[in-house]
Amino acid sequence: FHRGYYVRARAVDHCVQDFLLKTQSCARTQILSLGAGFDSLYFRLKDLGLLSRTVVYEVDFPNVACQKAALIKGIKELSSLVGDAGGEGFGAIALSGKDYKLLGVDLSELSKLEKALQEAGLDNEIPTLFLAEVVLTYMENSRSDALIQWAAESFSQACFVLYEQMHPEDPFGRVMQQHFSQLNSTLHSLAQYPDHETQRRRFLQKGWSECSVMDMNEFFTFCVPEDERRRVQALEPFDEYEEWHLKCSHYFVLTAAKGMKSSWTPLFPGSFCLAVPCGDGPVSVSESITASACGMRSEAAGLRCYGHHSALIKPNVILTTGGFGEEDGQHRRMKNFRVLIKHEGCWKAGRVKKENCGKRWDGRLYHTVSCLSNSLALMVGGRTSPSSAALGMLWLKFPESSTALDLHGFTVELVDLQTVAEPAALRWRHSATEVMFRGEKYLFIYGGRSATQPVLGDWHFLHTEELSCTVIPVEGPVPEGRHSHSACTWRGGVLIAGGLGAAEQPLGSVFFLRKIEHAFQWQTVETHPPLVPRYSHTAHVHEEKLLLVGGVWFRSSSVPGITVIDLVTGLCTDYVISVEHLEWPLMLHNHSSVFLPDEKELLLIGGGGNCFSFGTHLNEEAVSLNLSNILTSH
Questions:
Q1: Of 34, 185, 264, 548, which sits with the fewest C-beta atoms within 10 Å of its C-beta?
Q2: Where does the secretion signal sit in this chain (predicted)?
Q3: What pLDDT is recorded for position 521?
Q4: Do 148 and 238 sit in the same domain of this protein?
C-alpha cells in the first residue's frame, strides 16, 4: 500500500520536474492538473522554489474544489504559500493566488472547462503540462478522448502525463476490475485501451506527436536511482513482493508531447540503456493445458490460502500446512492442517488432528516440509510476521500404514526441535531439497530471507538423522543470493531456478548443484531462448525435463503458465494454462503444487495473496492439470 502510493507520486514528480527543467529557458510555463482532488503537488513545488515562472491550475468537481479551498484557507502554512490574487467567486474559480488557480468544473463538459480556464488566465501559447492521475478512466471514452484531442489541438506547446490501470483480463486484472466495480467506479478506458500499445496509439491518433509508456515495475527499476530504491526497500518490514510487483504491472505512466522545442521523453533518460528484465522468453506454443477444478469447493475452504506448503507424504496423499487464508469464516494465519486423499480417481479434502508435544502450532508461512520416511516429515523455517525472527524446525509424525489414513481421523504429531542446526532453519522463502552424499541423506537448505537479511545466498547440508549441519565442499561459481526460487532433486544433485534477487528483481538463471566424487559443484544450466526471469513459482522434474509452474515475472503483457526446460538440450518452451473451465481467476503465485508422475497429473493447491489495495484474492479450490500431451510431445 505504502509502496504503491510512493511509486505513483514519484512517477508524477519525476515527469513534472523534468518538464520544469526542460522549459527553464521559457519566460512562462503552466501546469494543468485534471481531477486534482486533494493533491499537494503545488505546495511541494512551491516549497522547493520551482514555480518562479510557472502557474499551477487545478480542476475538479465544484464540491471538491470548494472543500479544498476551505481546507487551504484554514491552514496558515498553506494559505501563505498561495497568497491572494483576488478573483475568487468569479465563475468557476474557488481559490486564486499569483501562481495557483483552483477551479470547480466537470471535466466531461469540455466547453465549460475551456471557458473557465480562459477566465482564470490559462495561456494556450506557452508550454503547458497536463496531469491526469487515474482520472480519465472514470469518464466515458468518447469524453476522455475528446479531452486528450482538445489538449493537443488547443495548445501550441504541450506535454501530457497519464497514470492509469491496464491489463484487465489476466487474473490480477480481473481482481482489480472487481474491486472498482464493487466501489461503483467503473474503469471505462480498460476495454478500449487495455495495454501499452493501445494507449500509445490513442494519443498519437488524437494529435500528439510523441508518446512513451512504462509500467510501474519498469519505472521503479529504471527511473528511480539505485540508492533511492534501496532506501525505500529498507523503510519498513516487507514481504508482499508478489502483490507489489503484480500491482505495478497493472498500472502505467504515459508521457506525450507536441510542439515542444526539443523531444520530451522523461521516461527514457540518457542513462536508460538497459533492457527491461523480462526477456524475449521461451518458445511459445499454441498448445495449451486445460485447468480443471477438483470439484470439492465446499470441503476445501481450508485450501483457500497462500504461503503454505504441500507435500506428498504417501502415494495419493498430500499434506498441506501453514499459510494465510480463509478459515472458519475469517482471514488469518491457518490454524489447521489439511489432507488431500485421492480415492477412486477423485481428490477429497479433510482436516487433520494435531497432537502438540510441547509445541503449539504457530501458523507459519513460507516454510518447507520434507517427507523423510513413510511416517516422518521435517518442517524447516517459515515466519509469522516479517518483522519477527524466523521459526525453527518441527518433526511431523503421521501414521505409517496407509490403511490408517482417513479424511476424518488423520492425525499428525508435532515435535519441537532444538538443535545445533537452528541457524540453518532461521529463514523463510527458502528451499530444502533431499540429496545423498557418501551414503548419507541430507537436506540441502538454500537461500531465502530473514528479518535482518532481505536475501540470503548461503546453504547448509542438514543431516536428516542427526539434525546437524555437515560441511561438504562445494566448488564452482557461487550463484547470486535469492529467495522465492524453486529447487528440485535431479541426478543426485539440486536444480535451482529463478527467484528474487537482492535488488528485488526476478532472476532468470538456472543452476545445477552437481555431485562429483568428493564434493558438490555449482554449474550453470544454459537455456535457449533465455528463461524469462521469475519467482514465486513451483517446479518439478520429470525424466530429463524441468517444469516451472506459474510465478511472477515483469513481462506484463502475459502471465506465466508452465515452462518446460529440456535439461539435455536446454530448449525452453512455454505453455499457456487454459482457464476457461474455471469460475474464478486462477492465481499462479504463492501456490503449492504436487506432481504425480505415473498419471502425469499436476495438482495446484492454494495460491493468491493479500493486496491492501484490492483485497484478499485466493484460488477457490485445488486445480488439476493433465500434462500427458506436453510431456509426451515435448
A1: 185
A2: none
A3: 97
A4: yes
- Residue 275 has a CB neighbour count (10 Å cut-off) of 8
3-state secondary structure 297-335: HHHCHHHCEECCEEEEEECCEEEEECCEEEECCEEEECC
Q: How would you classify residue 447: left for phi > 0, otherwise alpha for psi between -120 and 50, otherwise beta?
A: left
Identity of the residue numbered 270? G
The contacts of residue 177 (CB under 8 Å, 6+ apart) are 168, 187, 190
Handedness of CA 79, 85, 88, 91 (dihedral sign): negative
Q: Which one, of 307, 281, 345, lies nearest residue 576 by Cα?
A: 281
Residue 90 resides in a domain: yes
Helix (H, G, I), strand (E, B) or coil at 525: coil
**Sign, Cα dihedral of 228, 230, 236, 239:** positive
| CA 190/CA 251 separation, integer angstroms | 11
Most distant CA pair in the chain, distance? 89
For 84-91, the CB contacts below 8 A with 24+ separation are 87/120, 90/119, 91/115, 91/116, 91/119, 91/120
The cell numbers describing 147, all together, are 479531452
- Site of grid cell 478573483: 87
Give the Cα separation of 629 and 626 in Å (integer): 8
CATH number of the domain that 190 lies in?
A: 3.40.50.150
Whether the link from the prior residue into 168 is cis, omega within 30° of 0, is no
- The answer on 210 and 317 residing in a single domain is no
Distance of CA 590 to the CA centre of its chain: 11
**% of the chain at pLDDT higher than 90:** 72
Note the pLDDT of residue 366. Answer: 97
The reported pTM is 0.93
| Cα(256)–Cα(212) distance, integer angstroms | 6
Please report which helix (H) or strand (E) contains residue 80, including its range: helix 76-82
pLDDT (0 to 100) of residue 297: 57
Per-residue pLDDT reduced to its tens digit, 416-427:
887 766 888 899
CATH code: domain of residue 571 = 2.120.10.80
**Radius of gyration of the chain from its Cα atoms, rounded to whole angstroms:** 28
Question: What is the domain extent for residue 78?
Answer: 1-258
- Given a contact cutoff of 8 angstroms between Cβ atoms, the answer to whether 472 and 520 are in contact is yes
The whole-number pLDDT of residue 612 equals 76
Mean of the pLDDT values across residues 132-149? Answer: 96
